[in-house]
Design goal:
- By secondary structure, the protein is mainly beta.
- It has helices at 39-44, 173-176, and strands spanning 8-13, 18-23, 26-28, 31-33, 52-59, 63-69, 76-82, 84-91, 102-108, 114-117, 121-127, 131-138, 147-149.
- It has one domain: Jelly Rolls, CATH 2.60.120.10.
- It has 2 helices and 13 strands.
Length: 191
């Protein structure tokens, strides 16, 4: 509670370290107010400082991911500021007891939920609305030389992507050339 206002609820998925931030939305005749980030929340849940902010816009049927980088590892606080996406995180930390385990959730501009994805996870999303703006803050800087990926449709991950039968999926050439998790070499995964 801040200044008499309850601004956020949290759901922690302890086994993975993933946290869903559920903001309280205040609406009136002018529109709405929602708080998207507060340092005290980050500190309470031991989330490192978020030092880079990114924003992407994608059209319906775009699938981005599953991406991660090795050096430096990046944690991400992800939200969909406009539209609706199916957001996915996969634990790719080779020494983790939850290695290969997936987490997914719908994010949209109605609930304004956000997901904290810890460092060492691959991340991706699929756009369900006509277009979607995805905003995320990272715990470290993007390093294109260190970027890695897992094939989005890896059967071992058990991700039930909500693909639309009547709509073509759009994926980058780079993402379509990713490997299955089981085919990654040890030095291609976070330790």
């Amino acid at each position: 509670m801040v200044g008499g206002l309850n601004l956020m609820e949290f759901i922690k998925f302890r086994d993975l370290g993933i946290i869903v931030f559920k903001p309280i939305i205040y609406k009136d005749q002018r529109g709405f107010f929602v708080e998207t980030c507060r340092e005290s929340y980050l500190n309470e849940y031991k989330i490192p400082p978020l030092i880079q902010q990114n924003h992407s816009r994608s059209i319906r049927g775009v699938l981005r991911g599953l991406h991660y980088q090795l050096n430096p590892l990046q944690g991400k606080l992800v939200r969909c500021s406009n539209g609706k996406i199916f957001d996915v995180a996969v634990d790719v930390r080779i020494s983790s007891p939850t290695f290969g385990k997936s987490f997914y959730r719908y994010l949209d501009d109605v609930s304004h939920e956000q997901i904290w994805i810890p460092p060492g996870f691959a991340h991706g999303f699929y756009v369900i609305s006509e277009y979607a703006d995805v905003c995320y803050q990272s715990s470290d800087y993007y390093n294109p030389k260190s970027e890695q990926g897992i094939l989005w449709d890896d059967p071992d991950l058990g991700i039930n992507w909500p693909l639309e039968l009547n709509h073509e999926i759009t994926i980058s050439k780079k993402d379509s050339n990713n490997k299955f998790l089981k085919d990654k070499k040890k030095d291609e995964l976070p330790q």
